[in-house]
Amino acid sequence: MALDQHSLDFLAAAAAAAGPDATPMHQQSPEEARLGALASIDAIGPGPEVHSAEDIQLRSSDDADEFTIRVLKPSENPEGVFLYIHGGGWVVSDIAAYDAIGRQLAVDTGHTVVLVNYRKAPEAPFPAPVDDCWTALNWIDINREQLAAPGTPLIVGGDSAGGNLTAAMTLRARDAGGPKIDLQVLIYPVTDADFTRESYLAEVNQTLLTTESMQWFWDHYAPLDQRSHQEAAPLQAESLAGLPEAYLVVAEHDVLRDEGEAYGQRLAAEGVQVDSHVFPGQMHGFISFFNILPAGNQLVDMISAKLRSHSNQLAGASEEV
After folding, report:
1. Partners of 81 in the beta sheet?
2. 202 contact partners, CB below 8 Å, separation of at least 6
3. Please, which residues bridge with residue 157 across strands?
4. CA nearest 92: which of 169, 40, 130?
5. If we measure between CA atoms, which residue out of 76, 116, 127 comes closest to residue 93?
6. Burial per residue of 260-292, b for 16 or more beta-carbon CB atoms within 10 angstroms, e otherwise
7. Start-to-end Cα distance in the chain
8. Do the beta carbons of residue 267 and residue 72 sit within 8 Å?
9. How many CB atoms lie within 10 A of CB 55?
10. Quick check: bond before 294 cis, omega within 30?
11. Are 130 and 165 a contacting pair, CB within 8 Å?
12. How far is CA 75 from the centre of its chain?
């Protein structure tokens, strides 16, 4: 189906606000693109109140700059921990832009949500964002009993580049023998750097994320000789066996649709349980505007239901042992 009317209206309003002389992202500097991304914070608005919110500074290595994680606890007794990794092509956006959705997910899922403000390319290219997310994941594992009750699940998820980094976390954790990730939530993830796929070529898919802007993101993030590394392009991994259950969402009109679906198909073929959803009539980035676009709000509800169901299943299994 065509782009839904809510998306068309949103794009028209965004174009009108930007003006006729707006410079496309792929022609901007990273600094200019980041300034443009800040405008989305006002559009999204604040999220709900949570039980507690705390920023913590971490460092991936002695010679690396510090980065911030934000811990959002919905109650005194959360049902689990959800590490949510934000999108933005590894170049733009931050936890301030994702604070509202982090709070909404914390309240709706009953899980402590941890947002990670990983270092950004091109100043900190691949694998720096992967290393920062890995540091955050291990910090959560070590401090899990302060974040939720003992034995509660650890879930990792993210959208777009955050989905890419989520997949990288599951691969690194599998190969390192832990931490144990109970569920991965992949929201229109970047899984490859092949711009010849049909979804990249379709004109109707050139919305908030265009083929040219995705090429721009990759050029800032990783040189050509690193784009086959499994932690940069998870679809290039030799094996996807042994990864945690996946909850996968793609948008019909997204340049990333084909690689997201291909990743889900490979996961399933290699024995991983996959719960896949295609959102018809939707464009890339729709969850970021969950309080503007009805489909974004619907997806937050679906993810929340999945996390609560998954946590209840794990709790039931633990009681039976």
Report:
1. 112, 154
2. 253, 255
3. 84, 185
4. 40
5. 116
6. bbebbebbeeeebebebeebebbbbbbbbbbbb
7. 47
8. no
9. 11
10. no
11. yes
12. 24
Q: How far apart are CA 92 and CA 86, in angstroms?
A: 10
Contact 87, 163 (CB under 8 A): yes
As a whole number of Å, the CA-based R_g of the chain is 18
Q: How far apart are CA 93 and CA 40, in angstroms?
A: 9
Predicted local confidence at residue 109, as pLDDT: 97
Q: Helix or strand or coil: residue 204? A: helix
Give the single-character DSSP code of 218. H
pLDDT for 4-16, tens place per residue?
Answer: 999 999 999 989 9
Closest by alpha carbon to 44, among 272, 293, 303? 293
Helix ranges, the chain (H): 5-18, 30-44, 99-109, 128-142, 144-147, 161-176, 198-201, 211-221, 257-269, 294-320
Q: Which residue, chain included where needed, has tokens 């941890």?
A: 114
pTM for this structure? 0.96
Q: Which of the residues are catalytic? A: 160, 254, 284
* Predicted pLDDT at 30: 96
Amino acid identity at 34: R
Pick the CATH number of 5-320 from 3.10.450.70, 3.40.720.10, 3.50.50.60, 3.40.50.1820: 3.40.50.1820
Residues of the chain with pLDDT under 50: 321
pLDDT for the residue numbered 320: 56
